Structure formats: structure tokens, C-alpha cells
TrEMBL record:
GO MF, any single term: ATP binding
Organism: Variovorax defluvii
Domain ABC transporter: 4-245
InterPro entries tied to this protein: AAA+_ATPase (IPR003593), ABC_AA/LPS_Transport (IPR051120), ABC_transporter-like_ATP-bd (IPR003439), BCA_ABC_TP_C (IPR032823), P-loop_NTPase (IPR027417)
Keywords noted in UniProt: ATP-binding, Cell membrane, Membrane, Nucleotide-binding, Transport
Matching PANTHER family: ABC TRANSPORTER ATP-BINDING PROTEIN, CONSERVED COMPONENT OF ABC TRANSPORTER FOR NATURAL AMINO ACIDS-RELATED
Coiled coil ranges: none
Stated name of the protein: ABC transporter ATP-binding protein
Length: 257
């Protein structure tokens, strides 16, 4: 059964059709990239999947259940987690306390997270294990503000994982991360347990082709093509989108001169 599936999904903002007729399937254990030019509708699609936006058309299924009408918090509690394009961390907290807070949030103790401090050994143990998996254990007690940006983005993934999701949606996890750190960030994503399905938006094609097992190309709100990295790499329609139509028109114009 597909982990997440949309059918005919679309949203309009006034007269503007931002996402249209999207059939997207995320298989269990997927490492799937969502690519497309600026303004193609990638973040809007993620916002539809997580329930931030209600679609104007179509449906969304998670593990076969129709979740189209579910609010965002119910989707999150049922195993759908995301990260954002921008940094959403508390700079004064340490990674360890940030993850412990997220674990308490999951357990429904968000407002009293500081109180059972000494009694929450299990949360601390779990937080240490999670930070270890994301190669952040050596930095567990360093204030977030002092971490390299790539480490901060890894911590955001750790916070999403603290909810124990089965589906993880990553909106440009490497945005703003220097090139020498982005490889490590994607190594960690690739090593996530196979029972977590991952859909990630990424503009850096080197990272996309290195880490995605499947690629969906969104153009002007619609899926242009979907396939393996080899299929996408050789697809003339994708090349055209990424080369830029003006470039191709220019070549055609030039041939007539
Ligand atoms: N709440 C909104 N109201 C009106 N228009 C919106 C809204 N959200 C997004 N849009 C428009 O929808 C289009 C798609 O935006 P979106 O951010 O989803 O694109 P994107 O593919 O994620 O782009 P980028 O790669 O630049 O992040 C844009 O033209 C944007 O202005």
C-alpha cells in the first residue's frame, strides 16, 4: 500500500491555480525528490499534504485512509511530519533540550515539559539516541545559536523525527547550507530507517540525483513527469524546463538568421 497518495489534487488562490491535478504516490521507504522551477508549487503541495491548506479539488490518502478533510494536527499525530524552508529553532536551547521538548510534545506534555525534568529519563535517552542517529550527539549540549547552519538543519530533522513519523516531508533541507555540509545532511537523510517514507524538495540537482530513488517534476502546478533519476535525467521535457525555454527559443531563432 502506498504511504501517501494524492488524486487530482489542486488548489486555487483566487484566479490563480497554484497546484492542479496532481497524482503523487509515495511508496513505503521512499526517498523521493520533488523538483521544479521557482514558483512551480512545490511548497504549496507540501502545505496541502500536511493540511496547512485545504485543496480546492482532489483527495489525499495516507496508508489508504482518506485524510483530505483532516486538520494539520491530526495528520501530524497520525505520522506525517515536515520541516520548513526556513530555520524554526529556538536559538537559546540546546539540541538535547529541543529534542526532549519535542518528545514531550508528542507525549502530550508540551506545556509541562520542564516540570518532570528529573523524571523524564526515558525522554533524555530517546533524545540522545535520536541525536546520535543524526550525528549530533557530540553537540547535544551546545546552544543551537552556536551550531553550524548544516547542523541546525539536521536538528530540525531530529525534531520532526521526535514525533515518530512514518512520512517525512522536507522542504529544502539544504537551503542556505554550505556545499561541504549539504552532502552530510543528505547522507543522514539516506540513512533514515526504511520504514520512514521521505519526500524532499531540493534545488541542487547534484544532491537530487545522488540521493533520490524517484523524482517527481512539478511545473506550473502540475506533475510534468515522474520516474527514476536515469529516466528524469534523460527526459527532454525536463531538460527543456531546466535549460529554460528562452534559451531553446533563442537557439531556434538563431538557426533562422
Ligand atoms: N497563500 C497564497 N496565496 C496566493 N498565492 C500563493 C500562496 N501560496 C503560494 N502562492 C503562489 O503559488 C505559486 C507557487 O508557490 P510555491 O511557494 O508553492 O512554489 P515553489 O515551487 O515552492 O517555489 P520555490 O522553489 O521558489 O520555493 C507562487 O506563484 C506563489 O506566489
Amino acid at each position: 500500500m502506498t504511504a501517501l497518495q494524492t488524486q487530482g489534487l489542486g488548489i486555487r488562490f483566487g484566479n490563480f491555480q497554484a497546484v492542479a491535478d496532481v497524482d503523487l504516490a509515495l511508496e513505503p521507504g521512499a526517498r523521493q525528490a520533488l523538483i521544479g522551477p521557482n514558483g512551480a508549487g512545490k511548497t504549496t503541495l507540501i502545505n496541502l499534504l500536511t493540511g496547512i491548506y485545504q485543496p480546492s479539488a482532489g483527495s489525499i490518502r495516507m496508508d489508504g485512509r482518506d485524510i483530505t478533510a483532516w486538520p494539520a494536527d491530526r495528520r501530524a499525530r497520525s505520522g506525517l511530519a515536515r520541516t520548513f524552508q526556513i530555520n524554526t529553532l529556538f536559538p537559546g536551547l540546546t539540541p538535547l533540550l529541543s529534542v526532549v521538548l519535542a518528545i514531550h510534545e508528542r507525549e502530550g506534555q508540551g506545556a509541562t515539559w520542564w516540570r518532570p525534568y528529573s523524571r523524564s529519563t526515558a525522554a533524555f535517552d530517546e533524545a540522545h539516541a535520536l541525536l546520535g542517529r543524526l550525528r549530533l550527539d557530540a553537540l547535544a549540549n551546545v546552544p543551537v545559536a552556536e551550531l553550524a547552519y548544516g547542523k541546525q538543519r539536521l536538528l530540525e530533522i531530529a525534531l520532526a523525527l521526535a514525533a515518530r513519523p512514518r512520512i517525512l516531508l522536507l522542504d529544502e533541507p539544504a537551503a542556505g547550507v554550505p556545499e561541504d555540509e549539504s552532502g552530510e545532511l543528505f547522507d543522514v537523510i539516506a540513512e533514515l530507517p526504511e520504514d520512514i517514507s521521505v519526500l524532499f524538495i531540493e534545488h541542487d540537482m547534484k544532491l537530487v540525483f545522488r540521493f533520490a530513488r524517484r523524482i517527481s517534476v512539478l511545473v506550473a502546478g502540475r506533475i510534468l513527469v515522474e520516474g527514476s533519476p536515469a529516466e528524469i535525467g534523460h527526459d527532454p521535457r525536463v531538460r527543456e524546463v531546466y535549460l529554460g525555454k528562452t534559451h531553446i527559443h533563442l537557439r531556434r531563432e538563431a538557426a533562422h538568421v
